[in-house]
Amino acid sequence: MIEAPIPANESTRLAALRKTQLLDTPLEERFERITRLVCRLLDVPTASISLVDETRQWFKSVQGSDLTETPRKVAFCSHTILSDEILVVPDATDDVRFSDNPLVTGSENVKFYAGHPLKAADGSRVGVLCAIDHKPRGFSEQDRETLRDLAALAEAELNAKTMVDTQNELLSQLDVERRRALIDPLTRLWNRDGIMEILKREHARALRSKAHLGILMADIDFFKRINDTHGHPVGDAVLRDVAKRLLTSVREYDAVGRVGGEEFLVVMPFKPGFAGVDAIATRVCQRVGDTAVPTSAGLLSLTISIGGVDETVDFTSDTDELIKKADDALYRAKELGRNRTEIIMSGCVPPVLLEPV
Fold this sequence. Notes:
The protein is α+β, with helices and mostly antiparallel strands. It is 39% helix and 22% strand. Mean pLDDT is 91; it is low at 348-357.
């Protein structure tokens, strides 16, 4: 294995990377949709958006792998950031740089790699959009054009505002270690502490403006049965899949966290055009239930139960009360047969068309 040399502009590059404020942040649908497109358009099982810091490549988004990061010294992307050009490795087992790389010889089974460098606003190459296959293959000029187009989309997102409103505000106040402490390592959503901090901040914001605030408590139905029947690795795969489906169901400024084993919390601030907590809860139920989850045990059909609250925040309201109401609504959804939503409404949200997702 040949390690990539350190770029000549390393200190500038690392400063530009930190300025993006993307390292060690929760999953975001705006990046997830790009890596899904890479898999679909280039017909590969794995795709990622990686960011390369001093010692590691960290995946802001990855499809087809459970990795969240790797050591920098084994990363193909460490070689990609040395040039503005696409790096294509048709057969890693026949490339002296990578043939004995643990990503090639180990369980990740990387045989084909194509990576396009991603630049920060100052032109520094800070990350890579890459396509990976488990078998050697060619990469046509049309494939290169597709990867260039998708990399342009990823680069635009990389240099846009990192997250929105309260989530961005919180992330900007934390160093990397504290960010890591607020992210669930399995699903890469906010963990309980992180999502409860978001809820506290959104509640204070709604109180100042006497606005609506919505929350959803969502629980995967019969999840214990999945663990007992198929084992915890399959259960983990289900949790990761449901987490991503939740992200595709909510708005970009809603916050999603995992608060327990199979329980998730969604915090939804009021914005113009808000179609209501009930509409988003219904969408979550549909997206979890419509398509089976691929696992090592085969395709598993799932349903989810949801309890929600849509409330105008005033001085009689607090976050503990909101959580209790949502928990009560979730309990009722399960008592009434599961695979359904129960929403407690307080006040009125103007009826408007549901936002496209």
